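Aggregate trends can hide what the representation actually does to any particular protein. This step matters because it turns folding into a mapping between discrete strings. For completeness, the protein is quoted in full, as a sequence line and a line of structure tokens:
=====
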Amino acid sequence: MLYLECEIRKPAALRESNVIAIVTDSAGNREQLEVELVFLEQRSGRYFLPVWGISQDHVTKMVQLQFPVESVGGTNRIWIPAERVFYQKEEVPA
């Protein structure tokens, strides 16, 4: 699974378990996604959104990612620099 760092916000109008995850694309545009907090990976006080890798441009070192849900603005894919994501192998239960 690929993970993209995000900021989180907790507006009062959301359910107790939900947050707004905010990610920034390569052009500096910010996208907001409503997700459950437990859906995010947390490491050292930082939050990471699980995403899918769609394509990669080796010349520009950019990757196209797909969100798990559509953003508030209607976006479901963005391009970002490859160094802004990390891969974590998923464990398969025995």
